[in-house]
Specification:
This protein is about 30% helix and about 20% strand. It contains eight helices and eight strands, in the order βαβαβαβααβαβββαα. An eight-stranded mixed sheet has the order 3-2-1-4-5-8-7-6, with helices on both faces. β2 (about 30-35), α2 and β3 (about 70) form a beta-alpha-beta unit. α2 (about 50-60) packs antiparallel against α8 (about 210-220). The protein is globular and about 50 Å long.
């Protein structure tokens, strides 16, 4: 089975998130995508605007009816109050799967560009393979520039599925792959959505699932 953990703030979940998951399922023949809102993101501990329970509820609405996708509490708030780290979520997920299962960590290009600052980044990059979605015209050189020191990337051929593949390695001969999806059609950021909601511009309707938009209004999130 091919399983991808799709983590992030999902603050709120928008059409771009769904588009990336759909593209990854199609191109990489994934069997399951676990959409996992993060409890406390290390880089955004004071910046997450909606509570975890609200972000989980909105994610369930946004991904409802999407084949092979399910919302997961795999990255729920920790009982000890510490930030959530992606490496912990990946290792915990691996412990629940069969030995032959393939695990991927999925994210957008903007998140990937900070990967070198993530907790235990050099180790994280070899816990699984990675899927990164980028809009057309994204500078692929920026992907390689984001690696922690000691990590090298070798570009492989663009396969028939339209993925750009990078083989990652280090001095200890550890290996993994990064699959770049360079044609993600939906160029949306959660920051853009929150700004539209707080300014009552009405443009959020094109960015959100109608059910998510209704949830935001009913619960008066993001200054809506």
């Amino acid at each position: 089975m091919r399983v991808a953990l799709f983590g992030g703030s999902f603050d709120p979940p928008h059409r771009g998130h769904v588009a990336l998951a759909r593209l990854a399922v199609s191109r990489l023949h994934l069997d399951r995508v676990l959409v996992a809102p993060v409890g406390s993101q290390p880089f955004k501990q004071d910046a997450v605007a909606a509570h975890f329970e609200d972000r989980m509820a909105m994610a369930r609405i946004a991904f409802a009816g999407e084949p092979k996708m399910e919302v997961s509490n795999a990255d729920a708030p920790r009982p000890d109050g510490r930030p959530n780290y992606t490496i912990d979520a990946i290792l915990n997920l691996k412990s629940t799967l069969d030995t032959g299962d393939e695990i991927f960590c999925m994210m957008g290009a903007d998140s990937w560009l900070t990967i070198g600052k993530w907790y235990r980044a050099a180790e994280l990059l070899f816990t699984c393979d990675f899927i990164v979605g980028a809009r057309p015209g994204f500078n692929l050189d920026r992907i390689a520039e984001s690696f922690p020191a000691g990590i090298t990337a070798t570009k492989e051929e663009v396969d028939v599925a339209g993925c750009v593949r990078l083989r990652l390695s280090d001095a200890a001969c550890k290996r993994s792959r990064l699959y770049l999806l360079p044609d993600l059609a939906e160029d949306i950021s959660a920051t853009e959505v929150r700004a539209a909601l707080s300014h009552h511009s009405g443009s959020e309707g094109a960015l959100l699932d109608p059910g998510v938009a209704n949830y935001i209004r009913e619960h008066r999130l993001y200054g809506s």
